[in-house]
Amino acid sequence: MPDNVTxxxxxxxxxxxxxxxxxxxxxNLFWTKHDxxxxxxxxxxxxxxxxxxxxxxxxxxxxxxxNCNLNITIRASAEGTYECTDAAAEKSATAQLTVxxxxxxxxxxxxxxxxxxxxxxxFLGSWPPxxxxxxxxxxxxxxxxxxxxxxxxxxxxxxxxLNRVNVSDGRGHEILGLRCSVNFxxxxxxxxxxATNVPDYEWTSPIFVRNEKESNEPSEERRADEKNPTxxxxxxxxxxxxxxxxxxxxxxxxxxxxxxxxxxxxxMIPDDRTARGSLVLATAE
Length: 285
Fold this sequence. Notes:
Elements: E1 5-8, E2 12-15, E3 29-35, E4 40-46, E5 49-50, E6 58-62, E7 69-73, E8 80-86, E9 91-100, E10 105-110, E11 114-124, E12 130-136, E13 141-143, E14 148-151, E15 155-163, E16 177-183, E17 202-204, E18 208-209, H1 220-227, H2 229-268, H3 272-284
Parallel strand pairs: 1-9
Antiparallel strand pairs: 2-7, 3-4, 3-8, 4-5, 6-7, 8-9, 9-11, 10-11, 11-15, 12-13, 12-16, 14-15, 16-17, 16-18
């Protein structure tokens, strides 16, 4: 029986199915896929042969000893309900392939009293992922009641608020930040699947904190900057220029003060010849 699977565009997904007939490739099995746009069944394979309609992104991973396993290169059109049918036994099994366009993205907006954090993920299929938030303190994390919403059947989005001042989680612990988690859950299982598993996917965001001093780890942006040679060179150049400018200003101020002091001293000391002449005239009198 195939399992429900998920993956991002460009990744590989596997659909497994096996028959008791081991005498020929794929035994008595054939695959079809339900097209959600046209509500039609698209043929994938029959008697061990792939259909030209899907040969661009689907291949057999194993078609020996009664196995009829598909290797699927995930793209937007790959999403849907896959059905494996045993013609001899007149039995079939279905499983869902949910396509994620990419990992979730998060945006932080600063407001007067809170940080507004919104995360979203785009998906294709009939099994929407679920988004949850957790309050993080110095010892553990607790789920919050921030709900998510499904927009146009293709986007799951959720917003959580982080206070800009220190607050408690109600158990005497200060809330240091928030973390977003995305996975698949049983409560959103679609009707058109006989596979019993939940798609294996787990994504967790970095911890969003009020400032980096409140976090034991630097932010993702800061970690990226620390590894970026261009940022390192730019930072070093700015430091050198800053030191040079400070030194030049200090030197200029010092020269100005020295000149001003010298001028003052010159005005206070009389010319040597004038002093001697005055003394001579005083003696003659």
